[in-house]
Design goal:
CATH class of the largest domain: Mainly Beta
Strand order of the largest sheet: 1-12-4-8
Structural class: alpha+beta
Number of strands: 12
Distance between the termini: 10 Å
CATH topology of the largest domain: Jelly Rolls
Largest sheet: 4 strands, antiparallel
Order of helices and strands: HEEEEEEEEEEEEHH
Strand content: 35-45%
Length: 210
Amino acid sequence: MRNVTLSVRLALAAGLTLTAIALGLVLTQTPLVLAGTNGVPANFAVTFLHRGGTLCQRGGTLPAGTVAIRVSLSANAGPGVSLQAFSGSRTIAAGERGAGWGTDETITVPVARVARTVGDARVCVTVGQAAEPIQVNGARVQTAGGGEVVWLRLEYLRHGAGSWASLAASVAHRIGLAHAPGGTWVVFPLLAAMLAVCVFVSRLILSDLR
């Protein structure tokens, strides 16, 4: 029984410690911010992809520092997606996202950091075979030959100037909006309540061991 008690105490301590470490790591990370777009509007459900395939189009200006590209595809359970950006015949960015994404109106594909700004980029998005139609949010564009193609909206993301921790005051202010009463102070009772629940559950576990 003593060994069981010690094991539970150690497991509880390890869990709380790992949670604190994970929270600290998240707060030190830098959120992604919008660096630019290809200028295509994200019109809802312009068309659907039924068998996957590759879509290539003009990407506009690809800003320096881009580390992810947000693509206007939507699905409940999306397939694997790969992406390549070209300057002429040279690949300047590439990345992929595994299957399983969904429920959002966009998919974000991480890419290796773009070292310098590239104008008139060309982007190809390859969508794997899906179990359901993939919704495309973008625009229909007239070609020089009088035809029509569908272009995706592309958004280029890079790391912001500060960490999540540095944005705490701004986030707290936004959480406090639209409350009655409202204000930044609303956040502190919520944090206190979460901490109290954590302490209560921990004490409950330890008391049961006795």
